[in-house]
Design goal:
Blueprint: E1 2-7, H1 12-20, H2 26-37, E2 41-46, E3 66-69, H3 81-96, E4 99-103, H4 105-113, E5 117-120, E6 126-127, E7 130-135, H5 137-140, E8 151-154, E9 157-158, E10 160-164, E11 169-174, E12 182-187, E13 190-195, H6 203-212, H7 214-219, H8 226-242, H9 245-248, H10 250-260
Parallel strand pairs: 1-2, 1-3, 3-4, 4-13
Antiparallel strand pairs: 5-10, 6-9, 7-8, 7-11, 11-12, 12-13
Helix pairs in contact: 3-4, 6-8
Length: about 260
Amino acid sequence: MKKILIVEGNLREENQSFSEAGIQTHTESLKDSLAYFTDKLKTHVVNPSSDENIDKNLDALESYDGLIWGGSSLNIYNNTPEIKRQIEFMKECQKKIKKILALCWGMQVAVTAAGGEVKKAAKGSHRGIASNIEINEIGLNHPLYKNKDQKFNTPAFNFDEVVTMPENSTLLASNSINNVQGINFKVGNCNIWGLQYHPEITYNKMINLIIFRKKRLLEKGAFKDEKEIDNHIKHIEIENNKLDKVSRMRELENWLDYLSLE
């Protein structure tokens, strides 16, 4: 049985608001997706931003076979104490855990910890869906994208992007909004697979997040009015009817296969 560490990227207060609205936290979504593929994982969940004395309540990082670091509504360039704690914890994980899957915010934290840079996306945002992600030639031969269509749409929610990759990075996939959609890089003995999107989250949850964040999204100009939101939700619903569950989660399945290798 493999032992993995799951890192929750959202603040405790954000997760509480999710729960009160009847929406799964990102960790809950991830656990459900992992359970679809295997019941042979021992998981431990931590929240570097909100857990007190995290190091004292955690098994030695070296004892984990892998780590999955999930999404968040935070923006890494705000550099708050909570964000700084996540970056420092990621640095420790990169020293002591050999296999990391970094999802959306998790990828941004991993890149920042390894010396890369994340900024507000210059070409727009992904509001529940990312369209026309294309795997490049290197990515087609990478185990992350085994059995994945070369061009695909997927659940995603991000306003920021990686603008500078860490040293020794390999770009695996891109789209017109974010050049870095899939990435692989190493820090010492740690191998990081990073995605700017969410194979572990359903389109239905993304729709619920749009509704939950409606006021916030309108205030920041992500949508011009509620009619645009309604039309966007209809577009995601159409995509939801096209996408089968396993195809959506292929990257997660492939990472679990990689985790099982000695």
